[in-house]
Amino acid sequence: MSSSDRSQAVDVQGVKGTYEVRTFGCQMNVHDSERMAGLLEDAGYVRAPQGADAVDVIVFNTCAVRENADNRLYGNLGQLAPKKAARPGMQIAVGGCLAQKDRDTIVKKAPWVDVVFGTHNVGKLPVLLERARLRDEAQVEIAESLEAFPSTLPTRRESAYAAWVSISVGCNNTCTFCIVPQLRGKEKDRRPGDILAEIEALVDEGVTEITLLGQNVNAYGSDIGDREAFSKLLRACGRIEGLERVRFTSPHPRDFTDDVIAAMAETPNVMPQLHMPLQSGSSRVLKAMRRSYRQERFLNIIEKVRAAIPEAAISTDIIVGFPGETEEDFAETLHVVREARFAQAFTFQYSKRPGTPAAEMEGQIPKEVVQERYERLVALQEEISWEENKKQVGRTLELMVAEGEGRKDDATQRLSGRAPDNRLVHFTRPEEPVRPGDMVTVEVTYAAPHHLLAEGPAKAVRRTRAGDAWERRNAAPAAEQGKGVLLGLPKVGVPEPLPAPTGGCGLG
Question: What confidence tier does 501 reach under pLDDT thresholds 50, 70, 90?
């Protein structure tokens, strides 16, 4: 769209232009990007078609937890420089953790950037874009503390049946590999009533699954002075009529108390799934990481969860090659993996996070050693994941039909869905039509390490309010689909089920 075309669009349709948000990093960034999209749509922009070459506003929501995060950003910005030069009026904004960290250098290295904003002032994005346009100069605004809880912002949710619900922002931990507390600040909790009001509004819109989200989600309550606030919140979610599935991510072993386990076991709509970051199985390495638990404590939590919720699928995060890690330390990690029998593990090779204590530690492990250990860990976890999935064969499961999770579904004439424990199941397409958000009951016939198959006919199909919401959304005119709603009462949306964290943010 040319400058004149954009002016005509504003005059005729009241549309300022098109936008695209490019997201890097953890689930917190994914949810922040939903807010950025909601703000832009509330300000009069429309989402650009996927793959569009001409976009009026491009926003980078950045992550700072990888050693080469800045190289990745500047590489992307460099590719856009000639496009921006050829399209007067095009704007580029950079937000997120890297913007918070490198506020003074982004515009120096990429002077064609129009706006730089931080993790605490996402709500200023439309104002900063307009100010940059009027003043014809870059606007850099980085707040040092949270200006307003982000759930009060307009939000463009990504689907009609499941939603992120943020219960806190920030983190009070001091893990030596993680820069997140410096960039997102100390933990700030939302009032329970505000959280429940948002969930009820989402359910009214048709959402039937929510994921409670926090940097350290089960530390919820530390800011409001109630150590059992998280378990109380889980139980309160169980009393919301129409809410079928409740999940949460990511917890921290330090704060994972018995009352939380009891609430999970006793609240029917809290799903039998737990993502519990390990990071290392070596108590010596955990101490160097400033993780406030040791191997025995971690395995004790796993044992208690399995006793209370035998069918629970437990996943984890593991860092290989932390500074000073010996072969004996790594053997301890393999021991915990064997004992815990995780359904899935997100494994990472340690990389320096600039600005973290670990980056300056002695004993940095050679790349080839880290790679060899990583391959051994992945091979072991692959074997365990497959063995645990094989135990699912013959089980009858009710799946929530998912949108876009089966990349081969069209070729195989299958659909995909998530089991209560979050396992991905590909199933034979039923004769009657089903929609994302509907529920299908199937029998598992085959197991692979990362998915299950249900090759027989569906045993039952249950059409749901979530499926109705998906149908309404997709029947709406393109300009109306997914527009943000003020006061933290977003339309509808889906968190990717247990997204793979990228280190730091997602490594609770």
Answer: very low
SS3 318: strand
Q: Judge whether 177 and 289 are in contact, CB under 8 Å.
A: yes
DSSP string, 422-448: --EEEEEPPSS---TT-EEEEE--EE-
Asked if 34 and 3 touch (Cβ cutoff 8 Å), the reply is no
Beta carbons of 212 and 202 less than 8 angstroms apart: no
pLDDT tens, position by position, 295-333? 999 999 999 999 999 999 999 999 999 999 999 999 999
**What are the structure tokens assigned to 388, written together?**
């645990």
Of 65, 26, 67, 64, the residue nearest 364 (C-alpha): 67
- Tally the residues of the chain: 508
Residue 227 tokens, joined: 């150590």
Who's near 462: CB < 8 A, 6+ residues apart?
398, 438, 439, 440, 441
For residue 71, how many other CB atoms are within 10 A of its CB? 10
Cis ω for the linkage preceding 280 (within 30 of 0) = no
pLDDT bin (cut points 50, 70, 90) of residue 23 is: confident
> Can you tell me the distance from the alpha carbon of 168 to that of 190, in angstroms, rounded to the nearest whole number?
6
Contact predicate 188/221, CB 8 Å: no
pTM, two decimal places: 0.82
CB-based contacts of 187-192 (< 8 A; 24+ apart in sequence): 187/214, 187/215, 187/216, 187/219, 187/222, 187/223, 188/146, 188/149, 188/223, 189/220, 189/221, 189/222, 189/223, 189/224, 189/229, 190/149, 190/151, 190/166, 191/224, 192/229, 192/232, 192/233, 192/236
Quote the crossing angle between the two packed helices 367-390 and 327-340, to the nearest 10°.
10
